[in-house]
Amino acid sequence: MILPIVAYGDPVLRAKAKDIDANYPELTTLIDNMWETMYAAQGVGLAAPQIGLPIRLFLVDAQPFAADPDLDPIEQKELRSFKKVFINPVITSRFGITESFNEGCLSIPNVREDVDRLFDITIEFLDENFEKQELELNGISARVVQHEYDHIEGILFTDKLSPLKKRLIKNRLVNISKGKVKVDYLMRFPSKKIQL
Questions:
Q1: Are strands 132-138 and 187-188 parallel, antiparallel or unpaired?
Q2: Residue 127, number of CB atoms within 10 A of its CB
Q3: Do 134 and 122 touch, CB atoms closer than 8 A?
Q4: Domains along the chain?
Q5: Residues 6+ apart with CB under 8 A from 117
Q6: Residue 147, exposed/middle/buried by CB under 10 A (0-12, 13-18, 19+)?
Q7: Per-residue pLDDT for the chain (196 aa), expressed as one digit of tens each?
């Protein structure tokens, strides 16, 4: 089932999400719905707060980035198969060089800006079977995971912009929060009913 994506301005996007356990109600159905919602909106990641749930859960499928001809063939291959569910994740280290990359967000439609992030991370998490995992990621996969991880920490990519950039996009963000934006996927706006 496709769920509405929560728009900028909703308090759930600013809440620090809580851990869940294996008894979380209908978790498998929730994860399936999140995949369906993400693909319907043509996203590469989706965090539970973006569908209104303040829990530490997100998923990513970085496959669309694999088509970038400027990427190293090894990274293209890794991105083609980088599809994961992250439950109760903790980034244990961030290291390497800082790189800038143009980011967007399903909760902040039609806004894209360059964001600086560290190139490498180590993350511990539980997969959808509640088995403990640890990954060392770099490049685009590390960036996508950091973006989604920020969501469960109550942080948006716009928070990482310079004061000047924030001022330049302020009106666009206000309009999104009021539902004054055209999208081709289901959204829930703070001051409006669900809109398609």
A1: unpaired
A2: 12
A3: yes
A4: 5-188 (3.90.45.10)
A5: 98, 99, 101, 142, 143, 146, 147, 160
A6: buried
A7: 999 999 999 999 999 999 999 999 999 999 999 999 999 999 999 999 999 999 999 999 999 988 888 888 888 888 899 999 999 999 999 999 999 999 999 999 999 999 999 999 999 999 999 999 999 999 999 999 999 999 999 999 999 999 999 999 999 999 999 999 999 999 999 865 544 4
Residue 93: CB partners within 8 Å, gap ≥ 6?
121, 122
Do residues 156 and 144 lie in contact, with contact meaning Cβ atoms separated by under 8 Å?
Answer: no
Of the residues 26, 131, 148, 153, which is catalytic?
Answer: 148
SS3 74: helix
**Would the pTM count as exceeding 0.85?**
yes
Q: Examine the residue annotation and report whether 128 is marked as an active-site residue of this protein.
A: no
CA pair distance 138, 96, nearest whole angstrom: 9
